[in-house]
TrEMBL record:
Pfam families: cNMP_binding, HTH_Crp_2. It comes from Undibacterium terreum. The lineage of its organism: Bacteria, Pseudomonadati, Pseudomonadota, Betaproteobacteria, Burkholderiales. PANTHER family: CRP FAMILY TRANSCRIPTIONAL REGULATORY PROTEIN (PTHR24567), DNA-BINDING TRANSCRIPTIONAL DUAL REGULATOR CRP (PTHR24567:SF68). Residues 152-222 form the HTH crp-type domain. GO terms for cellular component: cytosol. This is Crp/Fnr family transcriptional regulator. PROSITE patterns: CNMP_BINDING_3 (PS50042), HTH_CRP_2 (PS51063). Residues 18-138 form the Cyclic nucleotide-binding domain. It comes from the Bacteria.
Amino acid sequence: MTEDKIPDPRLLFGKTMWARMLAPEHLRKVEAEVTERMVPAGAYVWHKGDIVDQWMGVAEGFLKMSSVSPEGKIVTFSCMLPGGWFGEGSLLKTEARKYDVVALRDTRIACMPMSTFNWLLDNSIPFNRFLLSQLNERLGFFISLVEYDRMLDTDTRVARCLAAMFNPYLNPGGSMQLQISQEEIGYISSVSRQRANQALQVLEKKKLLSVDYGGITILDLDGLRRFPDEGAK
């Protein structure tokens, strides 16, 4: 898969939280140096163990971050929606990738070279502040997944895991229509596909979401976050 210049950087960076924080001269450098690549559905953006040389963002499409256990079980950690950027941890630690990233549908990826990423760290206080906030949000997200797995019933775990995918820092531009299979929802929530299907039926009856062919539509994001509180109906 080849990388090309972004046809109109304004369409990408106008919707990107950290880019809106940059000084004009810093943004111009980023626009000149970030490239894009197309990844077809089912293909890998990167493999676990790949060498780190870029920070990446989702311009269009849908990705999942996952790994395979020694027993061969696929463990999905998170999904990335348009507007989300990822991989900063590996760049900061200059280590090999710790997980696979796979496109769940045809996806357009923005690729920032490591040299540009490090230049922004050295020259932009707003960029540093954004990264601190994003790393904090990502840590909170993964801690919450452990809490959901250990403390919540299955229906609530599915509701909270779906709601967590719409974090304004991690996935700022996500549509309320989500093309995701019930099997993938099961991976994210640590339940079987059949049990995920049952939970989705419960949440649909509560009018929190609707189950569509090949995905779901979120109808009440705040209700998903608060489910099963009395106010989430």
